[in-house]
Amino acid sequence: MASAGRAGVGTNQEDIRRHNLGTVLGHVHRSERLSRAELTARMGLNRSTIAGLVTELESLGLAEQAKPSGARIGAGRPSVDVKARSGAYVLAVDLRVDGLTVARVGLGGIIQSRATGPVPQGHDPHAITDSVLDLMRLVVKDVEPGSALVGVGVGVPGIIRAEDGLVRLAPNLSWRDVPFAQILGERLGSIGMPVLGNDADLGALAEHLRGAGVGVEDLVYLSGEVGVGAGVIVSGHKLEGAGGYAGEIGHMPFLPDGKLCHCGAHGCWETEIGAEAIALAIGCPAERVGALGEFLEGVHEASPDLRQVGRHLGRGIAGIVNMLNPRVIVLGGYLRSLSPLVQEDVDQEIAVHALTASHELVRVTLPGLGGDSVLHGAAELAFEPLLADPVGRLATACRDAEAALAV
Amino acid sequence: MASAGRAGVGTNQEDIRRHNLGTVLGHVHRSERLSRAELTARMGLNRSTIAGLVTELESLGLAEQAKPSGARIGAGRPSVDVKARSGAYVLAVDLRVDGLTVARVGLGGIIQSRATGPVPQGHDPHAITDSVLDLMRLVVKDVEPGSALVGVGVGVPGIIRAEDGLVRLAPNLSWRDVPFAQILGERLGSIGMPVLGNDADLGALAEHLRGAGVGVEDLVYLSGEVGVGAGVIVSGHKLEGAGGYAGEIGHMPFLPDGKLCHCGAHGCWETEIGAEAIALAIGCPAERVGALGEFLEGVHEASPDLRQVGRHLGRGIAGIVNMLNPRVIVLGGYLRSLSPLVQEDVDQEIAVHALTASHELVRVTLPGLGGDSVLHGAAELAFEPLLADPVGRLATACRDAEAALAV
């Protein structure tokens, strides 16, 4: 409150400018192409201020101005177009029980390079870290020289403590209180600490920003992997809960004397619709559950057992509709391949169990980002510090990831 | 944007003053007693502005200033205390399937008078309206002359469309798309239209403002009546959903081939823990479910059947913990009487089915407002226009409710 006058004012103005710079970058990052006139309108700042901010982003290598596109705003000169440039990128990691994907993602959410590999058996966090680093080395090859690595985001199928990236529980990895952010961060060295997010939360974030839920304020992303989780967006904000652990829909009690779940309880919803249940229903051998996606691609007609899985899926979705009254439910992970096969059963169960008022408002849909929702969400998480303060983040960014990862 | 200069400025200042007046009144309304110094600190306005606002509230009959209480703020003179006065009141209605309560509630959430009666058989909305009006006539007798009736709030066990108070569905009243706000509003005449809210939402609101959840940002109020619903507060805000229908936890699928629910589906949670299930477990005859509360008071040891209801309650609560990660879960309605009888079973099921990270953050508790949570919530809903603009609301308030209700 009692900071020295001039310095105080100077800092505040500089703070505002940095904040505005980040906001402009955010708009550019989330739109494929945007005119300076649109930016001016969205931000409520005057044209010369916007022109100055865009020029600064250009000099930072984060944006470029292009010839006007066809559309004109009003009667005047056509406005200059602004789009993201690849002067900054992040590394996004999608850690699934059955596979590992790492991508180099540029501003604008562009996947520049990707690599996938198996998850080491036993799910040892150090062994997984080794694999993540191997994949990272692959995707940072051929990065534009001098381009800034501004963050690492990791999607994990578990419950994450936000402040330090401790994985409280990832039942299907058999992890309890594993400090994965710290383990990976130690190996990343000068690249800095990674940010971890729950896979379903990241799927929801990405589908909300660039997928099937753009402009939708109430959205549920159902992540159907070995386990089943939900990322929930409510009135435009992530549903966090008291500790950030909300959304563990896979562990809703579903069958009183159902199968044993990896969490230790019996009859959780995911024991009836998760990968193991699907595998059993289509005769995929247990040791090949990791390739369940491929197996499902080869199924063209649902067996009675698979239709039963579909009915369980629909009945659970109806519960989500009744509880959360969302506008959109996105079926991610294996549910993408499963749902077209059993759509009739799913729809019928939803119709029976969902209350009309909520049912008539909801749309159940496939992800707009295909199988990459979680990966894109991890990238968005990693981009957040850059969008909060582009100049500050760039100042400490890693400019030679290949060297940093060679250690 | 282009309003005339002076008038524009004048209006804005007046708007700000009215808004501040409402904010002061809100603080006074929510605290039993508050010093002017505390008000000054909470609102960040200067002392003379606060003194002026309090004096205006006093002249409106909404607040009174009292001798300083013992506690001093700082070293100066003790600050003057401010508390609510009964110059304005609301009528709050708690419409349950098994009974009707109407209360006259003054500022500060003080129940000045209450009356209860049965709900007409058949649940005809016009007949219920007649009963509501009869009870209202009882509670407005002996109201302080000139005191302003500033709103009517009604808690309904159903799904309400916020904009017009249409009851989309109240399964246990057999109501579908009943325009109850309009039906009641026509009879209220000069008193004005009532505001309807879902009973569980109102319970959550009241427990958050004055009950077991004061200061808690993530709270679930479970309303156990004939049906079971949840009012959910997330990060301090009501969980609405796309149409305001969120929280229908009673219709979570719970037993695949369970009993037929009033909603038309089978196996909803409320068929296992609602009033009918409890009545069956304690041998309360079906025709006396309306007096289930009294029956439960007479039970001192849980039968095996009742313990089974307790296990179902605990298992469902675990699902809520996993899905929403709340800090507090308040057990309202019949669950107040039930839960002490079966606490061990409830706790055990929660421990088995709730994920540790979320379980260790949650507290399951009885309502701070006893059986009046919904009634208080209905009153809070009715007070909202007064707290938004005290002068404007008082200008059109009904000053003689007895006469208005005599029509």
TrEMBL record, chains A, B:
Transmembrane segments: none
Family affiliation: Belongs to the ROK (NagC/XylR) family.
One Pfam family cited in the UniProt record for this chain: ROK
InterPro entries: ATPase_NBD (IPR043129), ROK (IPR000600), WH-like_DNA-bd_sf (IPR036388), WH_DNA-bd_sf (IPR036390)
Classification via PANTHER family: BIFUNCTIONAL UDP-N-ACETYLGLUCOSAMINE 2-EPIMERASE_N-ACETYLMANNOSAMINE KINASE, ROK (REPRESSOR, ORF, KINASE) FAMILY
Protein name: ROK family protein
